[in-house]
Amino acid sequence: MNRRLQDIPAPEALAGEEFSEAWEPRDIGATSATEGGQADATPAAVTAIRDREARIASARTEEERAAINRDRSIYRVALTFTAAEADLVKAVLGDRPAERLIEVCQHWSTTHPVPAT
Questions:
Q1: Cα–Cα nearest to 79, from 43, 108, 38
Q2: pLDDT in tens, 1-11
């Protein structure tokens, strides 16, 4: 296997005629419309992400970067809905889905016990 891999120069092995747009960088601080959906973050999440990135950039060793990466104080959710479900979710969450989801969760937690983390 190694011998075969050595026979193929890396650029030629990785080259393709077409590239997808599966990953496109975006400003996480603003709601961005994606194809058929939205991406959003609360202001607190944006601050936490930027702080984490700054701490990683200023880390002096790989161990420091690894310790920062182990910090799991950021929680991301990716959900997909279709048809009537999608219409319902869009109607409830509106144009600021992250902030509205926090409101819904806070309201829910007033009547349901939330387990300690």
A1: 38
A2: 666 666 666 55
